[in-house]
Amino acid sequence: MNWSDLGTVAPIIAAVLTAAAVLIVDFAAPGRRAPAIATALAGLAVVALTIVSLSGHRETAFGGSYSLDNLTTFLDLLFVAIAALTILFAHDYLEPRRLPIAEFAAILIFAVTGGMLVAASADLLLLFVALELMVLPGYLLAGFAKHDPYSTEGAIKYFLLGSFSSAILLFGLAYVWGITGSTRVDVVAAALANVVATGSIQPGLAMGLAFMTTGVAFKMAAVPFHYWTPDAYQGSPTPVTAYLSVGPKVGAFAIALRLFVGALGPLKADWLPVVIVLAALTMTLGNLVAITQDNVKRMLAYSSIAHTGYILVGLAAYAGGQHSGITAILFYGAAYTFMNMGAFAVVTAVQRRPGVSSQISTFAGLGRRDPWLGALLALFLLSLTGIPPLAGFWAKAYVIVAAIQAGGWLTALAVLAMLNAAAAAFYYLRVVVYMYMREPAEAAAPLSPGLLFRVGLAVTGIVTVIFGLFPAIQEMASRAADVLRG
Amino acid sequence: MSGLPILSLITFTPLLGALLIAVLPSSQPNLIRRAALGTALVAWVLSLILLVAFTSKQAGFQFKEAVDWIPSFGIQYKVGVDGISLLMVLLTTTLTWISILASFGPIKDRVKEYMVSFLVLEVGMIGVFVALDLFLFYIFWEVVLVPMYLIIGIWGGANRIYATMKFVLYTLVGSLLMLVAIMATAFAFQAAHGSWAGAFDFEQLQRFAASGSFGNNFQLLAFLALFLAFAIKVPMFPFHTWLPDAHTEAPTAGSVILAGVLLKLGAYGLIRFAVPLFPYAAHTFAWPIIVLSVIAIVYGAIVSIVQPDLKRLIAYSSVSHMGFVTLGIFVFTAPALQGAILQMINHGLITGGLFLLVGMVYERTHDRSIAKMGGLAAVMPLWSTVFGFFILASAGLPGLSGFVGEFLVFVGSFTYAPAIAAASIIVMVLAATYLLWMFQRVAFGPVSDFLSGLGDRLTDMSRVEFMTLAPLAALIVVLGLFPSLVLDLLNGPVQTFLAAAGVAVGG
């Protein structure tokens, strides 16, 4: 190791220090919320600054296992935004329930640090360790409301299936290491290119590929490996659900990019059919089950499965020969992060008083009860549906363009994606129906979200519109995607 | 040509008005109503200026504006009008201010949200008619969807939520397939040129299509996707089932705009994009489409006869009338297409008027069932007279505009296939049957018990209500006597359409 490596990994160091600082502040002023939140947000701002100051660089650290490039920068910024938004939204939910914010913020920032490490992994071992760093705090967060049996149930399911899938993924990585003799992504890719050039794939490699696909599909919650998602999402405290629906998902796609595109790119003809099937199943089943849900949190959980399916279409387009598929994945991830967190934030606001359920009937008359929250939730839901000119529309459009360009079976997949998007309109708009076209069961008090919450909501709302009107972030995503060009 | 971006002004004036109304206090509904009407009138006057400034002899699109929007995909903000889109814009701006005026009385709840929705709806509708970039067209197409969803869902009748969901889902299935087709078209262009520049530009795509560059199989698939989207919107048999529900449950003004403008979006899409870009496919599918059109004409008329509900009857008659439009498009003759476009305008004026009239009765009686009516001529004489006028116009009485459109379609389709023309001529008898029979049951005979029970509430048409109908009636007479006013504007675009569609005939 040389000392300049520390400069390259400065964002990671800053993130770990932030998490530690939050805990120290909480130790110094136990139970006080404001200092902990201020420290966390200030620390995340510093992390964001270090990321930006390193943007444009392309270098590696620690013997080539950590890669700083445009893709790292893009994903890192996304992770920091996820953490900051989650903290902004969490306060309003945690305070009335007497749950501590400092531990919450610290655990969350550790999780996000894991995500940032995943994004930068150029080595399969680091990738695995980073993945564990990302998901272990996630289990804690899912069980954060420890007196709530649903929260505990969700956390245990999440933990068991999560560990199981990590093990499967590691098993697959071991096969790849055995066959290629290295864990470095570029070396693995070169070795695999050699294997492909010289003839057929050995059974061992096929086994490894199958295990890795399964492991990553679990992490993404792709059908049929999605069973943990609805329970974990519904049981978790709502701000945690907001985080779980985007953080680990972006992380899982970061793995897919570094592992499947980076290391296993030469084998893409072999994993393409699997991804097509996964994408088709994931979109269709996620949507069909979401239609039948009466609980908004559970509905959003299944819809997040459907969105995984759309993102997988982008991965399939890449494997079908269109590099723009990667750009589409990144743009989708960014757009989805903001619109989905916004939607969950409004659910959080509705559930601010303890004991309020997230049943769809709770949302009746929301448009009259709190016109701003109602309008914003409608905006986020329309964006999730894919109505132009909002962020979600471009996300789908880029995926579709990439798939159509790839042609063949992928055109059929694009058509299926669009039919799914139409079906999804039903359950998203159903919430709008309740908000605007039905009266509340009893006279409900107006919701009065706190200042932090309003700031967070304003950011997600504005970004959802800006990404829609001027999808300029597409350029940034495109530069990030260029990193993975072979 | 002057540098004034008049098309953008027309398109976005309602948006400005909507933003202005959004910040007005909800406690002042009258101010909001007047602001909305004022905005719609400004847009209308601007569109009249456009009509005056338009040169009907000049070929191609006029008042073009083009700005790069998303350069990496060659997507532009590009607008322009020819005779067809000009007429559609005029129809839209006219019906919008009439609808807003007609909403003054009936809409008492959430006036602000209603007016904002209505003006945003106008932005989308005008945008669809002026867009010359396929992507922009798609965006405006979707912009139309959300306000109409809200208008039916919030201010509609008892079964409004079912109706609005059905409307959205039908439309969305079509429009998302259309998006795939648009993307695929642009990609075919990009693949041939090696760059995205102009890939969504309608004029460039049309030149590309005219050179026969879209492969036949590609054309069949892309045309089918576009056709499905437009056919759902028209709506053609068998995709029409959303229409009776949406029309019946929508508030009066919503029905007027649905029938008057939204149905025209589909027909416009067929004329502007589907046929000129994919002529080979259009000819291949012409026969099935003609058959579906004739089924729609006959089926709509027969089903209308037995409808017990006034709005549902008019809704099904729309299916029949719009069948003439699709028939006129796909027989590929000049008179038939002129007739189809004239029919689009007539249907907007006449059916819009009928919905307004039925809405007036509903306001007073809170009922629309024909069986409960009877003898309205005695209690509402002015209303009954005007209703009779619109009924005759809808039945195609010579001298009124409805006759000219249908007549031209007959003439045009006769040269193509006499049997088709004969079949659809019989429908004129059916149309007279269901319309006049309905009119007889509603207006004549003794005053029904239901109506006499209402007593003084059953007042005749008010002055404001008459003002909403007078311009429509005037236009129906003027266009009936002087159809050349419209037909002159259509000569150029019709020739362009036939030339584009003729590519496959020769080759």
| Number of H/I helices of chain B | 21
Strand content of chain A: under 5%
Domain count of chain A: the total is 1
Q: How much strand of chain B?
A: under 5%
Number of distinct beta strands of chain A: 2
Helical proportion of chain B? over 70%
Annotation field: number of helices of chain A: 20
Q: How would you describe the oligomerization state of the chains in this entry?
A: heterodimer
Strand order of the largest sheet of chain B: 1-2
N- to C-terminal distance of chain A: 27 Å
Distance between the termini of chain B: 37 Å
CA gyration radius of chain A, whole angstroms: 21 Å
Using the alpha-carbon principal axes, give the shape of chain B: globular
Largest interface: A-B, 30 and 28 residues
Which keywords apply here?
heterodimer, A: 486 residues, mainly alpha, two-stranded antiparallel sheet, 20 helices, globular, B: 507 residues, two-stranded antiparallel ribbon, 21 helices, disordered C terminus
Question: How would you characterize this protein structure?
Answer:
The complex is a heterodimer of chains A (486) and B (507). Chain A is mostly helical and 486 residues long. Chain A has one domain (7-482). Helix content of chain A is 77%, strand content 1%. By secondary structure, chain B is mainly alpha-helical. Chain B has a domain at 285-507. Helix content of chain B is 76%, strand content 3%. Chain B contains 21 helices and two strands. Chain B has helices spanning 6-23, 29-53, 83-102, 111-130, 134-155, 160-193, 202-210, 216-233, 242-249, 252-277, 279-284, 286-305, 310-330, 334-365, 376-379, 381-394, 401-416, 418-443, 449-452, 463-481, 484-506; strands at 62-70, 75-81. A two-stranded antiparallel ribbon of chain B has the order 1-2. In chain B, α5 runs antiparallel to α6 and α10 runs parallel beside α13. Chain A binds chain B through residues 382, 386-389, 393, 397, 400-401, 404-405, 411, 414-415, 418-419, 421-423, 425-426, 429-430, 433, 436-437, 471, 474-475, 478, and chain B through 70, 72-73, 138-139, 142-143, 145-146, 149-150, 153-154, 160-161, 164-165, 168-169, 172-173, 176-177, 179-180, 183-184, 187.
